[in-house]
Amino acid sequence: SITSFINSSHYFLSSSLSYPSSSISEIEVERMRRSSYQASSSVGVEYDGRPISRAPPTEKEKEASASLEKALRDDYNLFESPADALKREEVLGALDEVVQAWVMQVHVEKGFDEERARQQRGRIFTFGSYKLGVHGPGADIDTLCVAPKLVTKDDFFGKLCSMLQNDARVQNLHAVEDALVPVIKMEFNGIDIDLLFVQLMLAKLPEPLDIVQERYIGNVDECFVKSLNGVRVTDAILRLVPNKDTFRLALRAIKLWATRRGVYGNVVGFPGGVAWAIMVARVCQYYPNAAASKVLSEVFRLYSLWPYPAPVMLCPITDGPRGIRVWNPSEYPDSLHVVPIITPAYPAQNATANISNSTKTVMKREFERGMKVMGEISRKEAEWSKLFEPAEYFIRYKHYLRVQIRATTAEELKKWEGYVQSRIRHLIFHLERSPFVQVCHPCTELIADGVVGEEGLHAKSLYLGLEFSAALHSSQMKQLDLSDTTGTFRDKLYEWDRREEAMTLDFSVKKRVGLPDNVFKGERPAEAKPKPKSNKKKQKHAAEEGAKAEAKEEGSSAVAEATDGSGEERKKKRSADEVAGDGEEGTPSKKRKEGEAKEEREEKEGDAAKCEVKEEEGKAVADANAPVQSVGHVEEGVAKKRNAEKAEDGGDEDTPSKKRKV
Question: Where are the beta strands (DSSP E) in 317-363?
């Protein structure tokens, strides 16, 4: 992959995008080559922070960036109003009050008097898109609750959950304890909140608390490191980008593009918000003075040609105070990671461990499309709307694997679907092992199926688009059986200790034309409509019947011609005999009349034989030989009669039979 990347470096020079040649640095290609090599050899992955170009933006790039911001603001409503921003601050303040009350109650229950308990406080920190400043209307707020050592994870999912459920301002609360990063999801005064928890091993939290300092890593259990790193990674990204405004505008555009093109979502195997932020920030480091439109173009071009599995990093990987495991493909199974995007805070982790070969293939296709469209926009051949066109997922593939998730109530379904989604990557990895499955593309959205079955279960479906190998013939396709893979996956998920009996999974392979209508937003596309049934079989049968009928008609004509010809010859012979015999008794003319009567009987018998032949051969008469065969049978029957007549005449040469035969 390294060689092919370097060999393809001429693509930078031949690109249709009209940007300065400074964006095609051969030095950077060499840097990526070295990074790719060292990424597979040791943790000391080389990081070169030098930019590719410090050139200021051109007027054309400034105009493109202005038009991009206008499109994001006016056409896609990605910027929050001041009133909405104020509401978010109020919600965070109200949530902080709930947390302080909870921390105090826990300390009281564990032996503190009320005065001492009141001095114990928790802290709320924000991270993710809200902290980065790229959230839009309706976006959730990622928050972290930090508490002193007396407050445990059980208190978080027990006492705090109970308090929130009893709060009239909270709706749709859902606790996910078994996720890689445990979280409470809820809606607080109309704002979606994802609340994480960290137990800091300190008797009392200091004032102020700078949680991003590495020394606090040593004061948490390892199970809380990922939760704590959300805040620390967000802070590091903002520190490492050279121009925050450019970064934010480019990241808004990338998040919109990734969402609409169906390549956004860590849980199903695509980069999540943090990973996309790191990828955009890396391009900003390469072009520290570039406009947002330039950064956006280079995101598509750079990552469509990136020498995976070379990691994308914003800073060197370092060891920390506690010796927690960091991303190291030479010592750990991290070597299986196909698109490593490394977080910039200790301990460095791969933010895209869920990406599979299939989702990488889908991403590269979308990068190539984005690069092509950006070229069209640069030449003013297309508008921004073309870049952000939604991908038509349900007409992209001919076959889909449907995983229907079922539960008794909507609340149970919420829990069950969250658990299934968090494990779906394992099903994708197993399907990819099949020699016939080239791509297994998960849909990033669950499709609501309503209430299904006789039991009235609530259901949602997760779809996986399947792209099979070109070597798989249609006959093999019918014999392809995925039941072993899906059955193993189902059995594994059924072992979940929080699963109820009615929480079930149903698997089925659907052709594109057999997909239910509810997967399409609006009218069913023509590509997904069943084709009218072909009448080829009926037409072929009709043609065969027509050929048989024609063959029969030709056979009848041939028989008639043969019969008419022999009759004319006999008439001529009889006329000559009548002239010679002059009608006397006992003359040959009289005998001839007797012979004619016999001939009529013979002809009738011959016709009967001919009909019998036709009945026997009926459907078999389909070619030109059939009429000849029928005539041959008729003549054979007549010959037998004449032999019998000869025997009656005693073989006399002068008998009428002999003369008639002559």
Answer: none
Tell me if 340 sits within 8 A of 350, measured CB to CB.
yes
Q: Which residues pair with 305 in a beta bridge?
A: none
SS3 per-residue string spanning 215-250: HHHHHECHHHHHHHHHHHHHHHHHHHCCCHHHHHHH
Burial of residue 97 (CB within 10 Å: 0-12, 13-18, 19+) is exposed
CA distance 491 to 514: 27
Cα dist from 482 to 46, 474, 508, 625, 626, whole Å:
43, 16, 9, 53, 53
Digit-coded pLDDT (tens) for 10-61 = 333 223 333 333 344 455 555 554 444 344 334 445 677 889 999 999 999 9
Helix (H), strand (E) at residue 67: helix 59-70
Identify the sign of the CA torsion 620, 625, 630, 632: negative
- 266 DSSP assignment: G
Q: Based on the number of CB atoms within 10 Å of its own CB, is 321 exposed (0-12), middle (13-18) or buried (19 or more)? A: exposed
Q: Which of these is catalytic: 35, 129, 358, 657?
A: 129
With beta carbons less than 8 A apart as the criterion, state whether 253 and 24 touch.
Answer: no
With tokens 């996910």, the residue in question is 176
* From 130, 216, 264, 303, the catalytic residue: 264
> Mean pLDDT across the stretch 254-269?
96
Catalytic-residue membership of 140: yes
pLDDT band at 96 (very low <50, low <70, confident <90, very high): very high
**Residue 194 catalytic?**
yes
Active site residue 227: no
For the chain, percent helix, then strand, then coil, each to nearest 5? 55, 10, 35
User: Which of 142, 155, 334, 449 is flagged as catalytic?
Assistant: 142
Active site residue 386: no
561-583: average pLDDT: 49
Rounded to two decimals, the pTM is 0.74
264 is catalytic: yes
In percent, the amount of the chain with pLDDT more than 70 equals 72
Query: Could you give the residue ranges of the DSSP H alpha helices within 382-409?
Result: 384-387
**Do 402 and 229 form a contact (C-beta atoms < 8 A)?**
no
Catalytic residue among 19, 216, 255, 397: 255
Pairing of strands 399-407, 457-468: antiparallel
Q: Which of 19, 35, 65, 194 is catalytic?
A: 194
* Length of the chain (residues): 662
CA distances from 404 to 353, 449, 458, 489 (A): 25, 9, 10, 13
**Of 140, 167, 192, 506, which residue is the catalytic one?**
140
H-helix or E-strand containing 627?
Answer: helix 625-649
- DSSP tag of 391: P
pLDDT in tens, 127-182: 999 999 999 998 999 999 999 999 999 999 999 999 999 999 999 998 988 777 89
| 506 belongs to the catalytic site | no
Cα separation of 248 and 277, whole Å? 9
The CA distance from 657 to 642, in Å, is 8
The single-letter code of the amino acid at 450 is G
Q: Of 661, 609, 614, which is closest to residue 635 (Cα–Cα)?
A: 609
Residue with tokens 């829990």: 415
